[in-house]
Write a structure and sequence with these properties.
Elements (H helix, E strand, L loop, with lengths): L3 E4 L4 E5 L3 E7 L3 E7 L4 E7 L15 H14 L7 E7 L11 H15 L3 E7 L4 E7 L5 E6 L8 E2 L4 E2 L1
Parallel strand pairs: 1-3, 6-7
Antiparallel strand pairs: 2-5, 3-8, 4-5, 4-6, 8-9, 10-11
Helix pairs in contact: 1-2
C-alpha cells in the first residue's frame, strides 16, 4: 500500500485512517502526534501558542483548543483513549532571546492536557534552541525527528510528487 504524505502547516490538525506521513517543521511551536496502537490510525496537530482564554474565539493555533480537537477527531475515527500513544515535539527557545518562554509553555500545555485526558506520552523531544523537522507515520506510530539550525525549502521532497516544497 502506497503512503501519501502531507506537510502540516501551523494552526492545523490532520487525522488519517489511511497510512500517511505527516510532516511539519516546528520551532517554538509544538507538534503533538497521537496514534491508536490497535487501529493503526493517527493524527497530528501543530500549534504556535499555548492557550487562548476565550475558547469560543479559539483556533488550532492554540494548544488548549488544538489538542482536545485532535482527540475528538481521533475518537470520531474510532480511536479509543486507552489505545492512544502521544509524542510531543518542538517547543524550542530562540537562541537570540532566551527570555522567551513560549516554547516551554507550548510543551507544558501538551503534557498537561494529555495527562488530563489519560493519553500515554511515549516520547518527547522538546526544548533546546534548534528547530525540528518531523515525519509521523500514521500507520506505524513512528516519528522521525531531525534537529536543524536552518530550514530550506529544498529540505522537503516527496517521491509521490517529485516536487520540492
Amino acid at each position: 500500500m502506497r503512503q501519501s504524505a502531507i506537510i502540516l502547516q501551523p494552526a492545523h490538525i490532520y487525522v488519517s485512517r489511511t497510512p500517511t506521513i505527516i510532516c511539519a517543521v516546528v520551532g517554538s511551536g509544538v507538534a503533538v502526534c497521537i496514534w491508536d496502537r490497535v487501529l493503526c490510525i493517527g493524527g497530528t496537530t501543530y500549534y504556535k501558542f499555548p492557550r487562548i482564554h476565550r475558547l469560543t474565539m479559539g483556533s488550532a493555533a492554540y494548544g488548549n483548543v488544538a489538542i482536545p480537537e485532535l482527540l475528538r477527531l481521533l475518537h470520531e475515527h474510532g480511536a479509543k483513549k486507552t489505545h492512544l500513544e502521544a509524542q510531543i515535539i518542538g517547543g524550542a527557545t530562540p537562541n537570540w532571546d532566551r527570555t522567551i518562554t513560549i516554547g516551554e509553555e507550548n510543551s507544558e500545555i501538551a503534557r498537561r492536557l494529555l495527562r488530563r485526558n489519560r493519553v500515554t506520552i511515549v516520547s518527547e523531544d522538546t526544548g533546546g534552541i534548534l528547530g525540528r523537522k518531523i515525519a509521523f507515520d500514521t500507520h506505524s506510530g513512528t516519528v522521525a525527528v531531525m534537529k536543524v539550525r536552518l530550514i530550506r525549502k529544498s529540505d522537503w521532497q516527496f517521491e509521490s510528487s517529485n516536487e520540492s516544497l
